[in-house]
Structures are given as C-alpha cells and as structure tokens.
Amino acid sequence: MTTLEASDPAPAAAARWAGLAVVGLVVLATLYAAFTLYLAGQPLLGVLMLVLAGAVAAIFSRPAFYATRFIFPGLVAVAVFIAFPVAYTIGLGFTNYSSFNLLTFERATEVILSRGTVDPETEQPFALIPDGDGLRLALPEAGLISEPLALDGTETEIVLAPGTPAAEPLAMRDVVARRAALQALTLTGPDGLRLQSSGLRRFAAITPEYTPRPDGTLLGAGGDVLTPNHEIGFYETETGEAVAPGWRVFVGLENFERIFASEGIRGPMVSIFLWTVAFAFLSMAGCFAVGLTLAVILQWPHLAGRGIYRILLILPYAVPAFISILVFRGLFNQNFGEVNLILEALFGLRPEWFTDGGLARTMIVIVNIWLGYPYMMLLAMGFLQNVPADHKKAAALEGAGAMRVFFTITLPQIVPPFLPLLIATFAFNFNNLVLILLLTRGLPDIPGTVIPAGQTDILGSFTYRIAFTDSAQQFGLAGAITFLIFVVVAALAYANFVAMRRAADRRFKGT
C-alpha cells in the first residue's frame, strides 16, 4: 500500500518570497526613476513611471491578476512607446512650445536677470595659482590675490587682498575646466568694487540689465519695466513688445485657429493635404496595378524562365529603400542623370524633375511605385493561386476571352482579400515622409507662405519641417497638425477594420 506524504511547503513559500522581493526591487527602481524624472522637469514622464510602479506592484503581487501578467509587458510597451508619445505630441498642439518658448517661467526669468553690461574700464585678466591642495585667484594688474579656494561650485563671494602669486598660473585648458565655478564667483576688492566673470580670462564690474521687484516685474537699468504675460509666455515691455526667451504656456485652440485662419498656413496646408491624398492613392493604385499585372504574367504556364523573372522582379523589395531612393535621386538628376541623358538623346528633352512642381510629384510617384510593386506582386501571386481553375475553364468554354475572364472571374475574387491590404498601403503612404525627405526634401517651395512648405511635401514631411528645420521650430503648431493627421489616420484604420470585418462576413456567408 502506497502512502502519499504531504509536500513540504517551504520551497513554495521561499519561491513566493523571492518573487515578491524581485517585484519590490522593480517597484523601488521605478519609483526612483519617477522621482528623478520629476526633479529633471519631466512631470508627465514621472507620473507615467509612478503609474507603472503601481501596476507592477498590483499585478505581480496578487494571485488574482495572474493571467494579466502575460499581457502586461505588451500593455506597457503600447503605453510607453505608442500611447504616451501620441498623447504628448497632441498635447503640444495646445501650447506655444517653440524655439522661443523652450524654458520654464523660472528659468526664463533667470536668463533675463543674468544679462548685464560690462564696464570696460574695470575689466582685467585673472589667473589661477596652485597653492597646495587648493587654488588662489589673482588679479595681476591690480596686485590682488584670494585665499586658497576649492573651486567646486560652492563658493560665491570671494574677498581679494593685496598680494603677488608665488607660483606659475594654470594653463588655459585647466581654467576652462573650472569655468562653471568661476562664473559663480563675485570678487570684492579693498575698494569695495564687485567683479564678475566676463570671459575665459577676465573679470569686470557688470551692471545687471534688470532687477526683480516684489510684484513679479523686472525693472530695467534705464527705467523700463518688464511684465510677465502668462497668456503668451513672454515678458512684455510697457509698449507690448515681447522679450525673449519665453516659456511654455497653454494656449488652447490658438494653433488650430492659426491653421484655419491664416492664409499663409491654410493655403499651403490644403494644397499639401490634397497632394498627400493623391500621392497615397496613386501609389496604392499604381503598386496594385503593376504588381497584379506582373503576377498574372508570371502565372502564365508557357512563360519560359519564370523563376529568373520572379527573382529579378523581387529585387527592388530586397534592396533597402533608402539606397534605392538615393540611387533614383542620382538617376533623375537634371544635369547629369541617366534619365535626362536618355530623354535628351531620344527626344531632345531635359525635364526639370526637381524644380518643376508637377514633374517632381510625378517623379515621386514613379519611384514609390517601383519600391512598392514587389510587395503587391507577391501577394497577388498567392491570391491568384486560390482562384478556382474550374471557373476560368467554364468561362472559356462559353467563349469568354482572356481579358473578360480576368475582369469577371479573377479580379472579383481577389479584390476582397486585397482590400484591407490596399487600405493599409494607403495609410502607410499617407505618412511616407522618408521618401519625401530623401528624394526631394519637400522642394520646390510653395511661394508666399509664412512657414516652410514645399510642393512635394506631404503632411508628415510638412510637419517635420515646421518642427525641426524651420528657424522658429514651432513644436506647438506641428503638434496641432499632427493631431489632425492622427484623426485622418484613425479614420483610415477604422475603415480598414470595417473592410476586414465585412470581407470576413462575406467569406463566412459564402461557405
């Protein structure tokens, strides 16, 4: 007779406590990251890390959430790398964030208060003299020298007394290494004159341009007053002139009003939007037509060397896209490109591919079809295999020609499974800014605009140029445009979902 002994619960308990210890360490590390991000001026990221710490503690410490542990890493990846960047970018669209409004209010105030006028009559060179474990700061022309200093950034007020250096001064590279600590020093001589750093090798009396007042305004040396305007994110003079740098503030729908109210923005944006839709549609239709045509040809049983042709036609898909784009940029070069050399030799034509807006757009569509047709061809070759041969034979026996068989039998049967892929291709090309930036950079420019906008720009490259290549770097305006793009792409994604569901329903009913 076999006796069943109770298993020892000690190993299971030890494993559970070890797991809780690991969870505790992860939570503590995440809380530390949240605190560090908050101190670094990134409260949103800090809150995200705080929420993540709470979720880890709840899910991995309670058995009730055991099943959730398997999908939790995916949820975290979606939240951190997709949801948060999208929400943050959209949030920027409701602010005045730009190269003129990068700072916080406190930091912008510090920058303005740090401005001063150097008195050239008091400017004189200084030297750092080694003295044991410390350093002495000397003004050789005035015959003044300080007590030994650490120069670790903690000293601010230094008193100088008469004296001469007893050693050779430090080299310039050693002085530069202590530049931050030197800029924090204020030197006071026997005559009471206060000197501050005015360069890598000089100190001088500096008169501040502005001084703070109790009511929050700044009083200028000439009597002018700067008042903070938190509606626009700038200090303003009494005449209403903004003084840079500014700070980031919430401006509501102002960026959206600029998009729709300013002709210098609305006009080019409407043109770019229409071109984006046309570019995405022509690329989708062109890739589908070329890919399907080549797939039908390769399916012809009497075609010799089909394997070689198939390999050659797939090559554009195997070459990295950025290499192909750069190659086409050279082929379409207006002066030395092979395309113009051939056209000139045959027809006497030298098209201006990069300076004429219509030709530049045509070139972009041609290059994009070249890059995308192999994908469509591979899909079509698979879908064509699923078309019943009996249907084609029956139509042929009734006297239908090859073209009629294709358009009445083959095409209607491959379009339903193709439809979601076509919508996805349209959505991809709607944001295909890599092609635009590498091939034309959005050029040629649209004349009469107040923002950088080109005739070959799509919405994605248009937003990129506003945010990163414009001198003003209008991140807020770019965020507003991104929000509009997000709405359009979301509508396309929903249409893709509906198309897939209807296609699945039709296939289910057909069976």
From TrEMBL:
Membrane-spanning parts: 17-38, 44-61, 70-94, 272-298, 310-332, 363-384, 405-428, 475-499
Molecular-function GO terms, alphabetical: ABC-type maltose transporter activity
Taxonomic lineage from the root: Bacteria, Pseudomonadati, Pseudomonadota, Alphaproteobacteria, Rhodobacterales
Recorded family membership: Belongs to the binding-protein-dependent transport system permease family. MalFG subfamily.
Mode of membrane association: Multi-pass membrane protein
GO biological process assignments: maltodextrin transmembrane transport
Record's signal peptide: none
Cellular component GO terms, alphabetical: maltose transport complex
Protein encoded by which gene: malF
Pfam families for this protein: BPD_transp_1, MalF_P2
Subcellular location: Cell inner membrane; Cell membrane
Entry annotated with the keyword GTP-binding: no
Location of the ABC transmembrane type-1 domain: 273-496
Its job: Part of the ABC transporter complex MalEFGK involved in maltose/maltodextrin import. Probably responsible for the translocation of the substrate across the membrane.
Protein name: Maltose/maltodextrin transport system permease protein
PANTHER family: MALTOSE/MALTODEXTRIN TRANSPORT SYSTEM PERMEASE PROTEIN MALF (PTHR47314), MALTOSE_MALTODEXTRIN TRANSPORT SYSTEM PERMEASE PROTEIN MALF (PTHR47314:SF1)
Record flagged with keyword Nucleus: no
NCBIfam families: PRK10999.1 (NF008232)
InterPro entries in alphabetical order: MalF_N (IPR035277), MalF_P2 (IPR029345), MalF_P2_sf (IPR047103), MetI-like (IPR000515), MetI-like_sf (IPR035906)
Species of the source: Jannaschia aquimarina
Subunit structure: The complex is composed of two ATP-binding proteins (MalK), two transmembrane proteins (MalG and MalF) and a solute-binding protein (MalE).
Record's keyword terms, sorted: Cell inner membrane, Cell membrane, Membrane, Sugar transport, Transmembrane, Transmembrane helix, Transport
